Recover the amino acids of this structure.
């Protein structure tokens, strides 16, 4: 019974959310650039993904993307496809963790070199 209620509540919330988004997003229907932005946001929303900007290297939820300052031009066509990627945010987290590990390794290597240098310098005196 609780599972059915949760599923129904989830469906209701999803439906209301889409209605609210559609209502808010319809304000600029005459602006073709806005419509292109809306296409990216809706694709991300319905695929349960986020939007990654290769230009700014930032991640956006569909809502943040619509509210943000990212420019999507309907004249640029394929360039926008390369600039914005609809991706699972877990992939972004995995990538950021890999970068963090790489940075940690660089810090470890640098601090070891620094400590070795000053220990060697102390012994020389």
């Amino acid at each position: 019974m609780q599972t059915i209620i949760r599923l129904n509540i989830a469906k209701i919330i999803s439906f209301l959310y889409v209605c609210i988004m559609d209502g808010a997003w319809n304000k600029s229907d005459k602006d073709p650039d806005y419509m292109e932005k809306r296409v990216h946001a809706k694709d991300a929303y319905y695929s349960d993904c986020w939007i990654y900007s290769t230009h700014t290297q930032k991640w956006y939820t569909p809502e943040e993307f619509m509210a943000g300052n990212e420019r999507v031009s309907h004249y640029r066509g394929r360039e926008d496809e390369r600039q914005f990627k609809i991706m699972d945010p877990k992939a972004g987290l995995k990538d950021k963790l890999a970068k963090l590990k790489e940075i940690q390794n660089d810090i470890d290597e640098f601090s070891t070199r620094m400590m070795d240098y000053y220990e060697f310098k102390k012994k020389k005196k």
About this structure: The mean pLDDT is 81. Residues 65 and 122 are 55 Å apart (CA to CA). The beta strands are 50-53, 58-60, 84-87.
